[in-house]
Design a protein that fits this description.
about 130 residues; mainly alpha; single chain; globular; 3-stranded antiparallel beta sheet; 7 helices
Length: about 130
């Protein structure tokens, strides 16, 4: 299961009353490692820097699973992007970048998310990540 959803949140969703704040809180509480990684990438943003990033491999498969679930789910990823006001990009099961929404049309974002960028970010130690 990807998320631990409290009964009150499930009930709100069944009534059509689930909002982003409730959902983001469930994500934060259910996927604390993913929350930490994305928060670190957002915090790493700085003036003059094209994007903030976090590129430390997860300490275990459990944490890696959290990060993969957070970034592979359209709903989770979208809610995190709206919450933090960024566009997330992802490489190698651990390298997360937080781009300002205004940077998505820029060369740096396109290069980071390109097949070339993915290939250049490979290394043997990350083969099975």
């Amino acid at each position: 299961m990807s998320l631990d959803v409290p009964t009150r949140v499930l009930n709100a969703a069944e009534r059509g009353e689930l909002d982003d704040t409730q959902f983001v809180n469930v994500v934060r509480d259910s996927l604390p490692y993913a929350w930490q990684v994305i928060s670190a990438a957002v915090a790493d943003q700085a003036p003059g820097k094209p994007f903030g990033e976090h590129e430390v491999p997860p300490p275990s498969e459990h944490e890696r699973g959290q990060l993969l679930r957070a970034l592979a789910s359209n709903a989770i990823r979208g809610a995190l992007e709206r919450h933090f006001g960024v566009v997330l990009a992802f490489q190698n099961c651990h390298r997360v970048a937080a781009f300002a929404t205004s940077a998505v049309d820029g060369d740096t974002y396109r290069e980071f998310t390109s097949p070339r960028g993915q290939v250049l970010n490979q290394s043997p130690e990350l083969r099975d990540c």
